[in-house]
Structure formats: structure tokens, C-alpha cells
Amino acid sequence: MEPENQTLVSEFLLLGLSEKPEHQLPLFGLFLSIYIVTVFGNVTIMLVIGSDSHLHTPMYFFLSNLSFVDLCLVSTTVPKMLLNILTHSKVISYGGCFIQMYFIPFFGFIDSFLLTAMAYDRFVAICHPLHYVTIMNPRICGLLVLISWTISLLNSTLHISLMTRLSFCSKREVPHFFCDNSQITKLSCSDTLINNIFLYLATGLLGVLPLTGILFSYGQICSSLLRVPSPGGKYKAFSTCGSHLSVVSLFYGTGLGVYLSFSGTHSSWKTSVATVMYSVVTPMLNPFIYSMRNKDIKDAMRRVISKIPPSH
Length: 312
What we know:
The structure is a single chain. By secondary structure, the protein is an all-alpha fold. The protein has a single domain (about 10-305), classed as Up-down Bundle (Rhopdopsin 7-helix transmembrane proteins), CATH 1.20.1070.10. The chain has ten helices and three strands. Helix 2 (about 60-85) packs across helix 9 (about 270-290), helix 3 (about 95-125) runs antiparallel to helix 5 and helix 8 packs antiparallel against helix 9. The radius of gyration is 21 Å and the shape is globular.
């Protein structure tokens, strides 16, 4: 009798967004462009925040961390997809697949926690401005980021530990452009009840609870702003929070939609497109949403550019 956890599959096949040959070159060009823009945008945000002392505040500390995590998230999936298209291959090794399953939720949930921390920062700044410096001190900000990384690390480690117990026999085709946890679980020939329960619980607790915190923070902010007599003060506060709400809506609208309905959907293509939105498109748009709607970022970019000596 073979051991229960024996793995007969040494590799998986990523079917991608389309199996039609005529679609591969446009997809390669599209995702290569997205990846280049994502790297440039997020690296620029990190460099601008790091080099400008005016941006050494809690809000931009969280934003620089968000840019770093977004860069890591998109680098976990897109380079492998581009390589497979370029080499006309669909193969990903067993180890490579598990690496993706570890780091995609790892960085995804850190994103979620950072967005929550940024919402809390805006809540304190608008609703308790006199105590802002005391509450959002560097120690608290560092602790919030550390907690985000620690919880995400424990979640991914526990999930991968459960995945290594599964056996994979003959099925190895993944209807996705990366190794998605739910899709790989479906390929197993073992009992996956515990894995599915954990997946739902992790998505509910680490996805819905931060969203609840964000909604609560902005509910309190809106309630506070309604009591502000000055229209100019209201506009400034709403403008400051507008970019953050745009990112939250895009991230959660697509992310939770995928993971809370993956068992009930029959269209893997629609699921893949929704996944592209939160795992690839959102990391690309975040720097531009913040820079276009944020006067501080624009001013900092101008100061950085003005320090660059002209080329001769």
C-alpha cells in the first residue's frame, strides 16, 4: 500500500487566460507592458517617499510598504506567465507551484492589512486630530506592519502544510495563469475537506474582517465630516481619502468576489479575468491613483526631479 501523502504528479500545466495560439502574442505584449509599468510605478513611489522628508509620515510609510508588497505580488505570477508564453510551454514544477500558492495569499493578505492600517490612519487624522501624533507614533506604525506580515506568514505556512498532505494523481491541468489555491485543491485525489474549510475561514477572517475595519473607519470619517461647517474643509478631507477608497474598491471588489464564489462559478475564464484585476491590474494602478489624486506626492516628485542634474 502506497503512503497516503505520496505525490505522483511532479509538475502542473498552467492553461493561462487563453489556449488559442493567436492570442499568445497579444497577451505577452499586454502583460509585459503591465509588469514594466507596475515595476516603474511602485519603485518610483518608494523612492520618492524614501527621499523626501516631507513624506516621512505614517500615511506614506504605509503607502511605501503597500508599493513594495504590490511589486512582490505581481512578480510572483507575471514573470512565470511571460516565460511560459515565450517558450510555448505550460509547465510549472511541483515546487514552483507551491511557491506561488505560498506567496500569492501571503502578499495578498498583507495588502489587505495595509489598506486597513491606512484607513485607521485617516480615521485618527480626521476624527482625533489633536491626538494623531500620539496615537500614530512610529512604534505603533511599525507594530501594525509587523503584525500584518506575521499573520500573513502564519496563514500561508499553515495552508502549505495542509497542501503537502494531499496526493495528486493524474489531473494536472490548472485552468489559470498561476497556481491558485482553490484550483490546485480541486486537482487532488485526496480528501480536501479540511483544506476547503481552512480556505473559507482564512478568506473570511483575513479578508472580510479588515474590510469591516475599513468600512467602520470611513463610516466614522463621514459622520465626522458631516459636522464640519466649512465646505472647503469637507472637500479637502474627502479628496485626501478619495484615492484610498478607489484602491479599496478595486482590490476588494474583485478579490473577495473571486474567493467567496469560486465554488459556485462555472466560468474559469471569468474567474481568471477577475483575478487579473486584483492581482495584476490593481498593483499597476495603485501608484497612479495615489500620485494623480495626491498633492503631496506630486510636489515631492517635482522636488526629486528638480534635484536631478540635466544631461549634456
